[in-house]
């Protein structure tokens, strides 16, 4: 079976994706409202924000809001993070019990507070521990388990091929490689050579990630790495419709028409409504600020609007201000 641009339809351990474009897990961003938008605009799969394996924090609001619900739209893929194999296995079981259809293991997060507990990308320094974690998690659940990692700990220790092979041997069903080492954090450019090398060295699906922000880049990364899917993170912030733009380009070989102001306004207003509903007004309007910042940053003279928006502390004021902002842009376009 073929989907966009003749790419093979991707099935990860029996979970079939509608296309090969995946929305990256991003803590503080990939919440349910954002994932819903990505699905609406054509993502083949989205992955939740990371869920801490340490059960001491599962009762907190933060963990509760990161849980998947069995009526969530799309593929319910939950990412877990931790370093204790038994805790990781329990976290996987817990999430599957609550509706997760796929478990992704975070081995790429570079944050100091995560790495100092040997979790996230810090694990890349300990292949034996990785093996134990993967075996325990795969053995604990009957849904596919995937792994997300980087190219290595630093430029002198690029071990993503070794890790991909360990993953495959442990029964991991797909591996995502963010084309940077941990030491690179988010600096410099993602390098796709290591992703291509991983693809050549394992038979499980490989997902290429890092710095893909246009349809043209998406096509280049597919062609160069021969990856089975690509994952988009930051480029979807304030532009969740990037998935349909990429799918359109890969299918038709030309760029889709830009969204109109009216269309963008509708997306933003719907997103805000969902945030208020999901988090409640107090938290929802605070989270809305960063999204609105991204949605509006490319419009001429939007700095002043964003400064004003960032101090509004009432949901109806936020909606009113946004409507006024878009109306001004519409009028400017007409004149
Ligand atoms: C704000 C933010 C939060 C992130 N949180 C996570 C996370 O929880 N788990 C994870 O595996 N990666 C996380 N990442 C990394 C992304 O999933 C992705 O690998 C990275 O941003 C590179 O892809 P991009 O260039 O398309 O953004 C995060 C990235 C950002 C910018």
Molecular structure report:
α1 packs antiparallel against α10 (261-279), α10 runs antiparallel to α11 and α10 runs antiparallel to α13. The strands form two sheets. The chain has an eight-stranded parallel β-barrel with strand order 3-4-5-6-7-8-9-10, surrounded by seven helices. Strands 1-2 form a two-stranded antiparallel ribbon. The protein is globular, with a radius of gyration of 20 Å. It is of the alpha/beta class. The mean pLDDT is 95. α3 links the parallel β5 (77-81) and β6. The protein folds into two domains: 4-252, TIM Barrel (Alpha-Beta Barrel); 261-334, Non-ribosomal Peptide Synthetase Peptidyl Carrier Protein, Chain A, CATH 1.10.1200. The protein contains 13 helices and ten strands. The protein starts with 10 loop residues before the first strand and ends with a helix. The structure holds flavin mononucleotide. Flavin mononucleotide binds at residues 24-29, 49-50, 79, 106, 108-109, 148, 178, 209-212, 232-235. Flavin mononucleotide (FMN) binds at residues 24-29, 49-50, 79, 106, 108-109, 148, 178, 209-212, 232-235.
Keywords, separated by commas or semicolons:
335 residues; alpha/beta; TIM Barrel; Non-ribosomal Peptide Synthetase Peptidyl Carrier Protein, Chain A; 2 domains; eight-stranded parallel barrel; two-stranded antiparallel ribbon; 13 helices; globular; binds flavin mononucleotide
């Amino acid at each position: 079976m073929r989907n966009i641009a003749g790419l093979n339809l991707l099935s990860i351990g029996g979970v079939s994706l509608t296309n090969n474009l995946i929305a990256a897990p991003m803590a503080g961003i990939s919440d349910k409202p954002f994932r819903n938008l990505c699905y609406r605009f054509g993502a083949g799969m989205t992955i939740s924000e990371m869920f801490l394996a340490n059960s001491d924090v599962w009762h907190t609001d933060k963990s509760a809001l990161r849980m998947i619900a069995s009526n969530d739209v799309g593929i319910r893929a939950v990412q877990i993070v931790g370093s204790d194999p038994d805790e990781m296995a329990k976290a996987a079981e817990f999430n599957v019990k609550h509706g997760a259809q796929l478990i992704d293991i975070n081995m790429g997060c570079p944050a100091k507070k995560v790495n100092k507990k040997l979790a996230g990308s810090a694990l890349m320094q300990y292949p034996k521990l990785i093996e134990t974690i993967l075996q325990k998690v795969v053995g604990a659940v009957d849904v596919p388990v995937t792994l997300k990692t980087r190219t290595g700990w630093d430029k002198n220790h690029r071990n993503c091929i070794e890790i991909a092979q360990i993953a495959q041997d442990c029964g991991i069903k797909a591996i995502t490689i963010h084309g940077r080492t941990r030491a690179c954090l988010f600096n410099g450019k993602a390098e796709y050579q290591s992703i291509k090398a991983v693809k050549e060295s394992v038979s499980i699906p490989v997902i290429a990630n890092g710095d893909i922000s246009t349809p043209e880049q998406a096509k280049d990364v597919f062609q160069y790495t021969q990856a089975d899917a690509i994952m988009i993170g930051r480029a979807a912030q304030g532009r969740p419709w990037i998935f349909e733009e990429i799918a359109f380009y890969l299918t038709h070989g030309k760029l889709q028409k830009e969204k109109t102001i009216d269309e963008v306004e509708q997306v933003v207003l719907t997103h805000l409504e969902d945030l208020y509903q999901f988090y409640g007004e107090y938290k929802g309007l605070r989270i809305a600020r960063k999204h609105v910042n991204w949605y509006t940053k490319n419009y001429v003279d939007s700095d002043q609007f964003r400064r004003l928006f960032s101090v509004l502390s009432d949901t109806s004021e936020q909606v009113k201000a946004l409507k006024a902002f878009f109306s001004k842009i519409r009028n400017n376009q007409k004149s």
